[in-house]
Automatic annotation (TrEMBL):
Signal peptide location: 1-26
Keyword Signal on entry: yes
Coiled coil: none
Domain of life of the source: Bacteria
Cited SUPFAM superfamilies: Thermostable phytase (3-phytase)
Statement: the UniProt record of this protein carries the keyword Nucleotide-binding: no
InterPro entries xrefs: 6-blade_b-propeller_TolB-like, B-propeller_Phytase
Protein name: 3-phytase
Chain ranges of the BPP domain: 18-355
Species this protein is from: Sphingobacterium paludis
Alphabetical UniProt keywords: Signal
Gene Ontology MF: a single term: inositol hexakisphosphate 3-phosphatase activity
Gene3D superfamilies, per database record: TolB, C-terminal domain (2.120.10.30)
Length: 361
């Protein structure tokens, strides 16, 4: 990174620090990891990112993020944080995730799915062109009548091979309010003969403490688990595959490690079964790190490895990849939403150094 870019990043981080202090939020630690890249600003309020990996050249991969407000939308960024494409005019898009290879009339299409909170829908867009392919959206939480019970917020996607060898894609959706045992609804995502993407409810699950809400959701696709933040309570773990017919909670951890809100969850993979679960410690402006290989039924196996201060302010959504994206990100990256209408990209090497030190453990 050139001296000019370093100065620009430092100035943006410092501006965010001043804004957080003046608004009464917890200040960023003087020892916080500084982002390698700060994105261009959205119009309203960023919330959640996802990473689309280019099929042939990872250095051309893109970041997709939500701008969370009525009239907001989805923004596509390059690895330098520049906005390359956007779609706006949505009814408060909250979280977003990506799936690869949805079969649409015999063609494999990569997709982004975002929750459209005030429309009570999820929206589906093809990638990387960001074209809507859902005929105006897929209604969710139909039949729910309580306050906030149709307000879709969190989303994560699970993919497996079906009986024909095609990708079976499932969206796991959270909301502003719901009932313990059925807070999350899972939808099978398919395309009809006319190419319109549809969603069918296949499962309702998920314990809830009743303390705040459930928004942040992450799927470990290779191991087949879904994790979600029961805000101010902890992180809950379930099987992601609806065909297991097993809605038993597998683990409930991080109950005593977070200042206030348990928020964004990201998974960084170092091997087939190893790696890290990263949890945004929102009001502490840090990420708590847990082992990916924690055991089912044993919350103690999810022992905190580190609590790393970052420059992102009050991070909601997060995402990570271990793939070599070239240039500034040879070991992948952590992406964190930050106040100030931006996302922060962190070179993974900076995060790994702090984990190796056991910082904040």
């Amino acid at each position: 990174m050139t001296n000019t870019k370093i100065a620009t990043v430092a100035a943006l981080v410092y501006a965010g620090l001043l804004a957080s202090c003046s608004s009464g939020l917890a200040p960023v630690s003087k020892d916080a990891v500084v982002p390698t890249v700060v994105t261009e600003q959205t119009e309203f309020d960023t919330d959640d990112p996802a990473i689309w990996i280019h099929p042939t050249d990872p250095t051309q991969s893109l970041i997709i993020g939500t701008d969370k407000e009525v009239g907001g939308g989805l923004y596509l960024y390059d690895l330098d944080g520049k906005i390359v494409r956007k779609v706006t005019g949505l009814e408060r898009p909250n979280n977003v995730d990506i799936a690869y290879g949805l079969d649409i009339r015999g063609k494999k299409v990569d997709i982004a799915i975002t929750t459209e909170r005030k429309a009570h829908k999820i929206r589906v867009y093809s990638l990387p062109d960001l074209t809507p392919i859902d005929d105006g959206g897929i209604p969710v939480f139909e039949g729910e009548r309580g306050d906030g019970e149709q307000d879709a917020m969190g989303i994560s996607i699970y993919t497996k091979k079906d009986s024909t060898g095609s990708n079976a894609i499932y969206a796991i959706v959270g909301r502003k309010a719901g009932h313990s045992g059925s807070y999350l609804w899972q939808y099978r995502i398919t395309a009809s003969a006319d190419g319109i993407v549809k969603g069918t409810v296949v499962r309702k699950f998920g314990a809830y403490s009743g303390k705040k809400e459930i928004e942040a959701i992450a799927v470990d696709n290779e191991l087949g688990y879904v994790y979600y933040s029961d805000e101010t309570a902890g992180v809950r773990k379930y099987y992601a595959d609806p065909d297991k017919n097993d809605n038993k909670e597998l683990a409930f951890f991080a109950q005593n490690d977070v200042t206030s809100d348990h928020e964004g969850i990201a998974i960084y993979k170092t091997g087939d079964t190893t790696g890290y679960i990263l949890l945004s410690n929102q009001q502490n402006n840090s990420f708590v790190i847990y082992p990916r290989e924690g055991s089912n039924g044993d919350a103690n196996s999810y022992t905190k490895l580190a609590d790393i201060p970052v420059s992102a302010i009050e991070c909601d959504g997060a995402e990570a990849t271990s793939l070599n994206l070239g240039g500034k990100f040879p070991k992948g990256m952590l992406i964190a939403m930050s106040n100030g209408k931006v996302f922060h990209y962190y070179d993974w090497n900076l995060i790994q150094e702090r984990i190796d030190k056991g910082e904040g453990k």
